[in-house]
Specification:
Layout: H1 15-21, H2 23-29, E1 49-54, H3 61-74, E2 83-87, H4 94-107, E3 113-118, H5 126-135, E4 142-148, H6 151-158, E5 172-174, H7 180-187, H8 195-208, H9 212-221, H10 226-242, H11 247-260, H12 267-274, H13 279-291, E6 295-302, E7 307-318, H14 321-335, H15 343-358, E8 361-365, E9 369-376, E10 379-385, H16 397-401, E11 406-411, E12 416-418, E13 421-425, H17 426-432
Parallel strand pairs: 1-4, 1-5, 2-3, 3-4, 6-8, 10-11, 11-13
Antiparallel strand pairs: 6-7, 8-9, 9-10, 12-13
Length: 433
Amino acid sequence: MIESTHIHNRFRESLEAFEQEDPHLKALLQLKVQHAPDWWRQLSPAEPGIFILTGGRQIGKSTSCKLLIQNWITQNKIIPNNILYLPCDEIFDAKQLSQNIRFFLQSCQTGPFLLIIDEITYVKDWDRVIKALADEGAFNNGTCLLTGSDTIILKEAAMRFPGRRGKANQTDFHLFPLSFHEYVQLLSTNKTPSQNELTVLLEQYLQCGGYLRAINDVAHDGKILESTYRTYEQWIRGDLLRRGKNEDSLMAILQALMTIGVSQISYSSLTHNIGSLSKETVMDYCRLLERMDVLINLQAFDMNKRQGFPRKDRKFHFTDPFIYQVIHRWLQRENNNNVSPNVSTIVEACVASHCYRLGHTFYFKGDGEIDIIYLQKGLINAIEVKWSKQLRSQDLKMLKKINVDNAVILTKDLTGKVERTTSMPACNFLNNL
């Protein structure tokens, strides 16, 4: 076994050593509020191939991979010597990656194997190594699981070896922060939380989002620790710098995105607001933030074609309330920005991000605007977010004009019908999703 990976492969000594000494499993057990992602239950040694797990940093990808190893050993699905967890933070090139993988495969005993290569996109030309091994039939009898935080790059590279992924029904998985519903399930002591409890839980969720470390800070200390904010700030900064990006440019773009909030804007206008960067640079940084699961952008929706308008203005949202809070505090410290977080903006972004997980998501612009349009099972769903205790007739103007399958107004606490349009608290809607 490669010496530097020993700490992650303690299962070769004993399952007990692995469960007690593995850094990810040990960190999970020390949390007051624990959540164990179980996407991996869809994998089976009987269905070998190349699988991909993506998701932002510090979201639980590595921990879930360790839980997969623990389960397969406990269930006697695979022998420990046929398993390798290979982190790529100390692998410097494709040649070293190839040597490490081949050394493991040659040492495997008869039977299926499990090879987990964590953060493989750290290694330049990694896809050439995987494709060459796949062409040789190296993964015909085992599971090769590739993980990475650069969602688009990993999946685009994987498209270069079609027909080599295996026969499983699903080969790509994506790990999101906990949804509000999952957050409620985790923290509520009631199977059916009261309206008041849902309201309180949403207030908390708008601070800590779906990130387990922030959730545990609140559960243990009553607030999110500064060290936690800094950890996620360093993730965003570090991943951008690793790709040769400029920190001043990043800060200027984040500041502009925070300033425009949920208003629709074109890349040209966003560039004009920043003033010091080219349009191509702004687009490059925004797309990289999307690949890192920091940002989503919604296109305007064409009701007739049921698709987006790529050339029209877009709406940008941070993907999770906690990410919004991290960036807001970061900008405050760097730019002396004393503007308080905009709760209405956070709520709309939270709803948009939840819908984004379910299907294609847009916004609509006509005589007025509809905050969120999302398609699910062939139906068009329209959502207006009105974070206030009162609704005005003009708030419903566009919802009344368009003919959609489902329309809803999300508020702080209003429930019922408003001029034949359903109104409900945002916490109920998010929990029901």
